[in-house]
Each structure stands twice: as structure tokens, then as C-alpha cells.
Amino acid sequence: MEYYPKIEQFVIEAFTKSHNPKDIKHFERTVYWLKQLRPEADEALCIAAFAHDTERAFRESSSHPAAGSSPKGFRDEEFLTYHQNKGAEIIADFLKQQNAPQEMTDRVQMLISKHEVGGNEDQNLLKDADSVSYFENQMNHFLTEKVAAVGKEKVREKFQWMFDRITSGKAKDLARPMFEDAITKLG
Ligand SMILES: [Fe+2]
């Protein structure tokens, strides 16, 4: 794990400077759940898990308004594609600057570029860990600030989608009680 601590520092610094320092907990726990789902996860997977949402720290609010504000809610395809690709690019550039092996850099980029929608087995694993960590750590923010900003229906759709997109049975079992709790609290 030579590059993981460097990524951790880079992401923590970026989010500490941005509006969302609370997100760091979500990243730590995405790594935690990733390892619960696959104890032998390689460095690239751990890096991708910690750094998957890095785009958010660099978002230019004028060109890309807050997630969920689009009429299509949190599942706006154009927005998700931008979020995934931009984050993947930022982290790949950082790894290149650190002279990380090309193979690992490409793998991290591949993983982050599909962390919302999944694709292959490893992209699905990252997506599943993100969902479990989302219900564990982001739920209250969505029940309060996000409901106030975009309304209950869009938040309900987001909760449903974050649960439905989970591929593995084990991750679904982990997320289910938290998901049900979120729906109950939403009322
Ligand atoms: Fe996330």
C-alpha cells in the first residue's frame, strides 16, 4: 500500500478545503465495507473506494449545480457521467504525478469511472460498498438538508436507487435495515 496513504491525504485535504468535510467519514467507511465484502481487496480498489467522490471537492458550482437539483433528480445521467469521469481523471492525474505504475493508475481510473452505475465485477463491488456506506453515513444529511433543498420525492427516489443498484446479496443484507430505516424516517 504505497500510494493509498498519498491518496488519503490528497482527498482529505481537498474535502477539508471544500464545503463537504463531513464526507470524509463516508470515504473511510466505503473502504471499510469494501474490505468486509472482499477482504483481499487490492490497493487500486482501496484507493478507488476512498477517492470515488473526489469530483465533488473540485466541482464548479456554476457549471454543475448541486446533485439532485436537476428535474431528473439524483439519477441525471449526464450529471452522473460527469461525476464519475471527472473524479476518475483527477485521481489518475494525481497518481501519474506520484509516478504510480500505469497499470494501477488505469485500474483506479476504470473503477471510479463506473462507481455509480457499476459494470464489471470490481466496479460493482465498489458501487456496493459505496451504497452501504451511503446509508450508514449520508442518510441524515439527505433527510435534512437534501429534503429541504430538493424535496422528499427526489430523496425517496435516491434512497430507492442506492438500494436497488446493489449487486451482491451480502451487501444488500448489510444495507437493507439502514435503507428501511431511511424510508421510515422520510415518512
Ligand atoms: Fe460515495
Q: How does this model look, in words?
A:
Helices cover 70% and strands 0% of the residues. It contains nine helices and no strands. The longest helix has 21 residues. The model has no long low-confidence stretch (mean pLDDT 94). The structure holds fe (ii) ion (FE2). The site of fe (ii) ion has 5 residues, from helix 6.
The assigned structural class equals: mainly alpha
CATH topology: Hypothetical protein af1432
Main pleated-sheet profile? none
CATH superfamily: Hypothetical protein af1432
Looking at the overall shape, the CATH architecture is Orthogonal Bundle
In round numbers, the mean pLDDT is: 94
The N- and C-terminal alpha carbons lie at a distance of 44 Å
Low-confidence runs (pLDDT<50, min 5 residues)?
none
How many separate structural domains? 1
Helix-residue proportion = 55-70%
Query: What's the tally of helices?
Result: 9
Q: CATH top level?
A: Mainly Alpha
Number of strands: 0
- What small-molecule ligands were found? fe (ii) ion
Strand content: under 5%
Query: Which word captures the global form?
Result: globular
As a whole number of angstroms, the C-alpha radius of gyration is: 16 Å
List the helices and strands in order: HHHHHHHHH
